[in-house]
């Protein structure tokens, strides 16, 4: 800062607004109470402008003394001409400005500020018309305010300077620094970016932009750019300091990143508009038009789950159930627990008359949220449809005639008395060692027809749990499951709870189990719930209460 050039500048601009950044180190003081002369100790070999006026109004600057030998010139003094002309300013105002420059250069910011203020007042009083000179005075005084920590007045003077000379580099840079010190980061960012439009080589502006960008991201999140004021476009005539060098790799990368961000922002705006149009069409019942909008959305964002479920709704309304199911499948790949996708896929399966799949999806919805009344009503309706479908299929399918032969091996025959059979005076003979599904089925049917749960329990006690699903695969129905549950609960649970747990752990893996489970009546479900309640109360080293609860979830 200050007039640190070899020769006086034509405008006498050697203060904080000077292009030179050289500074003199040391101390100064007025001599004899006069403000006309200043003495500055010079610690480097930098030169200041020398010159004198006829009135002798100069500032003496002592050079470093390296020795006292002859011819060294060690006693020579360099002088600064305080009466050097400054642009169109009259001599008294030029002198005030030069004095302010010298005071600023030597760290006397308050005194320099006073000189610049006097020069500004004098400019106003004389009625001059030189915006460039007044701009420099305001900019120099703003530098004093900034040094003294008065950021608010600095901003005010910089703004005045920029009104006089738009896109002046130093007022912009100082105002940016003042905004940053006041934590007004958005305005600081705009000024720093404007500085870089004028001169891309200002490293301080680059560093500040990077620093403030991080702060704005922390403050405003990913939408921080939308909250910035508009960055003015600097005309080419003001870009006088721009280097004509090819952009660096960092600049090219920054430009590419900015272009990518801009493209992403534009795509997001277009996506949001298309989605809103689609939603509006749905509200109006114009599902074909909405479908087109959602399809355009997916071209922009193919991973947007909500668009798939929205388009699935349109397909459902248009009775295009296959496409609706496909969109729900896509949504569930993106969000495996999406309740809306499960429900709409259930409706698509219902339209396709796949009642079992429909029921499965509705049960998933109710498991996530038992309060969804629509899903509960649909499940009741679909259960009825499924029963009708199974009944119709059973009637249409011809039954096979299976010959029944009696078992004659006496060693494999056990006679189990039954209260009702005894009442009728009859005994029930069942094979307790079945070797195949047919033999097991014959024994189970004999016990079931006579309602002899004790005989069923004996049969289950002699059957390996892992064989039970295989034995039941061809004859599993709701009544069979209910009868087995009663036998386990009434007779086998008290004798061998571990075996009961193992049977239940294998039974649910039988073919068609999930279908049959849906067709159970209310009383049959109650028997099942009662069994698991009794089993969970048993203390066992083979299973825990939590194991029983997890197993019950597969049944109830």
TrEMBL record:
Where the TPR repeats fall, as residue ranges, is: 271-304, 305-338
A GO cellular component annotation in the UniProt record: cytosol
> Chief subcellular site?
cytoplasm
- Cell membrane listed as a keyword: no
Q: Which InterPro entries match?
A: CiliaryAsmbly_MitoImport (IPR051982), RPAP3-like_C (IPR025986), TPR-like_helical_dom_sf (IPR011990), TPR_rpt (IPR019734)
Q: Where in the cell is it found?
A: Cytoplasm
Q: Which UniProt keywords apply?
A: Cytoplasm, Repeat, TPR repeat
* One Pfam family in the UniProt entry: RPAP3_C
- Annotated region Disordered: the residues are 1-78
**Compositionally biased spans, kind Basic and acidic residues:** 34-48
Q: Does the keyword Cytoplasm apply?
A: yes
Q: Where is the composition biased (Polar residues)?
A: 50-61
Domain named RNA-polymerase II-associated protein 3-like C-terminal is located at 433-525
**Record-linked Gene3D superfamilies:** Tetratricopeptide repeat domain
Q: Which PANTHER family would you find in this protein's record?
A: RNA (RNA) POLYMERASE II ASSOCIATED PROTEIN HOMOLOG, SPERM-ASSOCIATED ANTIGEN 1
Q: What is this protein called?
A: Sperm-associated antigen 1A-like
